[in-house]
Amino acid sequence: MTSPSSSQRDSAVADSARIGAWLIVVLLIPRIARMLYPEVWVEDDFYLESAWLVSVGMRPYLDFVQPHMPLLEWIAAGYLKLFGASYLSIEILNEAAIFATSILTYALARRVAGRPTAIAASILYAYSSLVFRYHAYERESFVAPLLILGAIVTLDDAMPAMRQAAILAGIFFLACAIKLTAVIPFPVMLIFIAIAYRRVASAIASGVIFAIAMAAFSAILYRLYGDEFIIQTFVFHFLKGGDLDRSTALFPRMILDVLVPLFVLGCWRIIADRTFSRGVILVLAIVVVEYAFYGVMSPTAWGHNYLEPLPFIAIVAASGSMALLQASGTLPQRWQLLAGGAALIAICLLWISPIINENWLHGAVYGFGFVPRAEISRLADALRDASQPGEDVIAPSFICFEANRRELVRYPETYGVYREAKAEYEHDGFFAARRRMGSADFFQLITDTRHYWTDQMRDAIAAGKVSAVISDSPIQLLPLVLVPEEFLTSNGFRPSLITDHFTLWTRTPAPAAAK
């Protein structure tokens, strides 16, 4: 057999580079397009403000409710100090994390199923409506690349055992320092290493290193923030109630659209072709445990949680898409597969996992948002003019972030529930508080505990401590802060800016004789 010539090798390398450059451009296009789109998707917007609050010297846990480890806030705060706090600046950071996830999805899928499937997987992830939806700033956008990196390290059996153990522990330490539930696939990877590579000692060592790192970090945070850190980060998660809607087990069908039928086809292909390689087993196991947690054990209807398993779902879905592509190239022999696959996709997109789903709320198209950027800019400019730096205002978090102004009650969605949970915990103990609040409906708890922050807002307005108010709007996914117009008027406020969805109220200056 004749070895390839130097020119042939150079041609192969050049072709590989061209494919890589082409793929990078394809993966960059949705990120750039999303930032240029004139509307944003507003959800979990307090985390925008919390990053800015840390950048101006405020303390998580003590100055605002922070139900997560603070590593992401520290990183984002440093970034905002360098580049300024605006939707565009924070969006660039988030989109960079999404782009990195796309590249890492390709890397993992190539190791698991080869280059064609890897290309398809990275594109399916990058162009997912769920990814477009969470474009601004979401914790899971930064957790996802770490989980994929952990899977890549897990599959590297050529890496020395103890080095693999240390790197894997470090990756999951960083992920959990951003969001604690990032730990979900970690036991899967440790078990995989112990069984597939017979590295039992390495798996145990990785778990121990991780536990020590998390304990040390928690000790540092406890020293900095005291009991508030413990209660908000650990205890509160067991007392905040949950989503009692029994349909949450089927929630993925309302956010994953085309990925659902392609995932089914991918599973069928894996079973039919018996391609149960180590990589395939690991990817499927991660999808299973992530769904078991978010869909069954701790069911939620919050789409951002599924950003964590989304790259792994995309890899299996890519296998399904390649099965259809290969069938189309062997017609008419495999027309049954192509027809069946097309029928499944059509049925899913029209009924089971509809293309028009929760990522199309409030007039959004395919997760591309529903609040105009221009409207946010106008409101932020007006709010900035109507208040002083360091002054508290009442306004939605995303407007406060864009205006660089502090919200009077930070994170109202959680503030009242947390105050109630803390009071129950300190008075009756953990188990009693858990029995009363743990099984309650989260949204009902928000309603039942809203007096904690509505009273505070009313007192601040009446006492003249607030000079600008913007109530929430029905355009938001969870409008909570609705200050009655009559109350504002009776306390000297008048509308100074009315946009399509919001009204800025400012205090009317008192007459000269009354000063």
What keywords describe this structure?
two-stranded antiparallel sheet; mainly alpha; globular; three-stranded antiparallel sheet
Which H/E pattern describes the elements?
HEHHHHHHHHHHHHHHEHEHEHHHHEHEE
| Overall 3D form | globular
Distance between the termini: 98 Å
Low-confidence stretches: 510-515
Number of helices: 22
Number of strands: 7
Task: Describe the fold and architecture.
- This protein is mainly alpha-helical.
- Helix 13 (278-297) packs across helix 14.
- It contains 22 helices and 7 strands.
- It has a 3-stranded antiparallel sheet. A two-stranded antiparallel ribbon has the order 1-2. A two-stranded parallel ribbon has the order 3-4.
Write the SSE topology:
Layout: H1 6-36, E1 39-40, H2 46-55, H3 71-83, H4 87-113, H5 115-126, H6 129-133, H7 139-154, H8 161-176, H9 186-196, H10 200-225, H11 227-235, H12 259-273, H13 278-297, H14 310-328, H15 335-352, E2 371-372, H16 373-386, E3 392-393, H17 397-403, E4 406-407, H18 412-428, H19 430-437, H20 442-448, H21 451-462, E5 468-470, H22 485-490, E6 493-498, E7 503-507
Parallel strand pairs: 3-4
Antiparallel strand pairs: 1-2, 5-7, 6-7
Helix pairs in contact: 1-4, 1-5, 2-3, 2-17, 4-5, 4-7, 4-14, 5-14, 7-8, 8-10, 9-10, 9-13, 10-11, 12-14, 12-15, 13-14, 14-15, 16-17, 18-19, 18-20
In a few lines, what is going on in this structure?
The chain is mainly alpha-helical and 515 residues long. It is built from 22 helices and 7 strands.
